[in-house]
Amino acid sequence: MRKTSKSAICIMFLSLFVLLCVPSVKASAASKAPSCEKTQTVYVQSWGDGYYEATTLSREIYIKNLSSSAKITSVKSNKDGLYVFSRWNNDGTGIKSVSIGDSEANTMKPGTSAKITIKVKQNGKTYTLTCKVTFKKASDYSKVSIGGKDYTSKANANVNVTIAKPSTAVKISVKMKSGRKLVSIELMRNDKIKTVKNGSKVTLKSGDILMISYKYTTKPKNYSKGTYDMDFTSATRIIVS
Fold it and tell me: What's the pLDDT at 198?
């Protein structure tokens, strides 16, 4: 009887110990401070009028350990020409990130940098996060060829690329860099859209627009979709003059 009682008492104390420890582990995980990358490269394309737009893959500063009840109370840039805002709403919806350069009003050209300061209120505490972002020219294409002419550099650097009207039918060839996938090539003419097969020939007229659409197959650091997913797609417009 005594041996049985001692065993029962040991089991009871062991069970009590486990019950006391498990909540403390959960509490420790839930109390992790929010954080973001200290530095980040943002790839931009020009609108051709002094304004730039960041690519969907690089323009978000994702915040790690952001709880569903957390609030992003302030987002600031030390450069006037950079538009920044929170994608996380105070009602606990959205994407757990701060968006940078997501506008044609962004004037941060390749070679410039900025400091982003983010304030987060979580579990009764206020945290200040900072990230230095450096802007570089986008480089998503390994080849964009129209009628044998190389437009790769222009397509990487610009949202819109203007070309002269070819005199004959031309071959359209597009190759993406690693981590990108070509989605479609579409010819837009007089409010009508026609799909163009990559590597095929097409006759272009003045006013035509070739829309090259692609998507990113990789995800950024600290990516968390929150209550909805981020659309990692992009497009380049080839405008025929």
Answer: 98
